[in-house]
Amino acid sequence: xxxxxxxxxxxxxxxxxxxxxxxxxxxxxxxxxxxxxxxxxxxxxxxxxxxxxxxxxxxxxxxxxxxxxxxxxxxxxxxxxxxxxxxxxxxxxxxxxxxxxxxxxxxxxxxxxxxxxxxxxxxxxxxxxxxxxxxxxxxxxxxxxxxxxxxxxxxxxxxxxxxxxxxxxxxxxxxxxxxxxxxxxxxxxxxxxxxxxxxxxxxxxxxxxxxxxxxxxxxxxxxxx
Length: 225
Fold this sequence. Notes:
Elements: H1 7-12, E1 19-21, H2 28-35, E2 42-46, H3 54-66, E3 71-74, H4 84-89, E4 94-97, H5 103-113, H6 140-150, E5 152-157, H7 160-164, H8 166-169, E6 176-179, H9 181-190, H10 199-209, E7 216-217
Parallel strand pairs: 1-2, 2-3, 3-4, 4-5, 5-6, 6-7
């Protein structure tokens, strides 16, 4: 049996979730110490602004899986959406795509994140989440159905145009929309005639546009309160 995971449904329902950013070089003891008594839904590895290689990532996801911790991974660049399946094959449970500005990029992310008949993710990878425990002997259709039901795909909105077009960008298959507040602030400063004065105005607009849809809105925060 694959892990019983309801995170996707809880995120879509707008329930609070939390993640802890950690170093991809952490061994089991370091990861255990970092997590402590925290009730985290994910441990988060940033592939955009920190150094890593694929061997490190696969080793880390294996360590995290042994501890029952899914790994959220921000891919290195928006144009790397075609590599999403590759990162998932290394044991990642959730993907975050940075600096998404168009519906076309969001659709490409969806295609490479989900297996057929939802997307076009290629079959394979002994390090995939839930596969290690089965010694790579898993039913193709059962695993694909489980993944499509549990894998979490998020995008980051980091410019004014993306905020304005979020209703089109955040299409079915995207589980949540997050923000890059610093890059979004750069964009606001570059477009003084936009309808938004602050980053908070952008958050509120996105939340209004996505109200009633199965897409959560995630705002950066350091504490649950």
